[in-house]
Amino acid sequence: MKRQGAQQERLSQSKPSGSHVQSSGVATQVVQCHEPPARVVRLVHEGSLDPTGQTAPPSPGVSGLRCLIQRSLLRLQQQYGNRYVQRTLTGRRAWPESRKPDVAHIGAPTWWQQQSRRTVIQRVLGPPYPFQGIITTRWNAALRAAANRTSRIIADLPRNTRVTAIANSGGWLQVQTTINGVVETGFVSHELVGNAPAAGVAPALAAGGRQEVTAFGAYNVYPDAHRGALQPNELFEAEFRRLRTAWTRVNDNSGGMLIHGAAPDVAEMRAMLGRGMARSQTFRNLIMEITEDAGHPVTINVGRNNAYWVDEFATNKVDLNDTAVFDENPRAGNAWASTQGELIIHWLTERRHGATQGGGFAPAHAAPLAAGGAQEQYRADIGQAGRVVSQERHGPAGGLHAGAYTDNAGNILRIRRDGSGGNPVPYEIRYEPAGGGAVTTRHNRIVAEVRSTSPSRERLKLKITSPAHDVPSPAVDVSAGRPLNFTTPLGGLVPAGANLFVNLYKEGVWILPELLLGITRWAHPFERHTDTISIGGVSYTIAVRLQMDP
Ligand SMILES: [Zn+2]
Predict the structure, then answer these.
(1) In the prediction, which pLDDT does 11 show?
(2) Residue 318 Cα, ligand 1 centroid: separation in angstroms?
(3) Which of 65, 148, 247, 527 is deepest in the core (most CB within 10 A)?
């Protein structure tokens, strides 16, 4: 039986009576149960402590049955989806705060036994290695060269550092993490590593804490004197106050961040910043850094179709329409693709760099993209692997071109755009996984509707034309209350130039196959447009807009 690490030493005070083995790559833990038999809801073999039964078969050499009590199981299921147990599940009153088990991690041969009449689970379980973990210690956790307390320290990992746990050895987890762009492998005492929760989700509230649900995230807040490890979206009181001040400054332009624009756009920008803060410590850190430094203000001139693409370094513009093209959350099936938050952290870091370092666009642009940079950190915060290594335009600015966002695995998010009319309009988004995986596309579609005031039915048809193409709709019987609806991909009309023309025809008039009732001009960048044509006492209202596939 190995005894390694601070947690192990503390635990040894309580005279564990279980036994354990380490099976290959799977969490094992002995749980002694002295609960009355009536409260025991499940007996499990060591090595298969996961109540979902998804972990490995019993470890060789261990035959003892262990128990889960009802309350433990319920909390497991409700809060962690059967994935792991956190903190003490029962017996809270009996354990003084100082001896309460910390958040410890799966894979560690840890047990906790109360000396008196009950002994319960400390915590257990989890998926096989590797799993995504996070440093939960109050200060730093030492990343060591070997699984013991005297080995060389490779680095100090601050709280909330993401690690990939790949194995365990005694009371130590073998982890990988990226430090300044270099992947380092070493050992961290197991109790300093928690499961990385879903982005933005505060874990279960422990005693002494309170919940704060704010526009900049949901947090568990603990007194500064609180003992015990914290997870993402858990903060000490002083940290929470600092964050709240930062948010106030975001909202009243009273610090180092100045947001200008039309009121609804400013409100939307602030809401997006709040969502970024809610998800990511990296994002929160950047917001605090900027807002606390009024001497180096970062300006955000927010609008719609105001920047050529997403943002402009020289003018501090940010284009909400372009930003909205990106996924708000990692997309199922293509979870690697950059999200809105990553774009925001890109240009925020870029502007912060420009404000504090000078040197112009190129070094500022490179900073967030660098290995270990803000984008990679943000991606890790929200559970995305890898990093984006390039964000660049392929093709001429004034014509058909694509913005390509390529990550270090070779996945490409390609946004095809039509710049022939000026500010580019995206017409197709392609998710191109590395290694020739199936490409997923989203189209920007023209959605057209024609309403008529005619009491009788007329057979109407639309034709949408660009300088190079035209797309006719089917002919439809239209009358008051029976509109014509037509949808076609914008991509079928590009290059669309400065204008699209929407032609309305009526069929079966006298000897004519079709009669042109009128034309409405839809100008670049093809925002929502409505026009009414009146002929012979009948009004035809044509409404067109673009709609990106979800
Ligand atoms: Zn940039």
Answers:
(1) 24
(2) 12
(3) 247
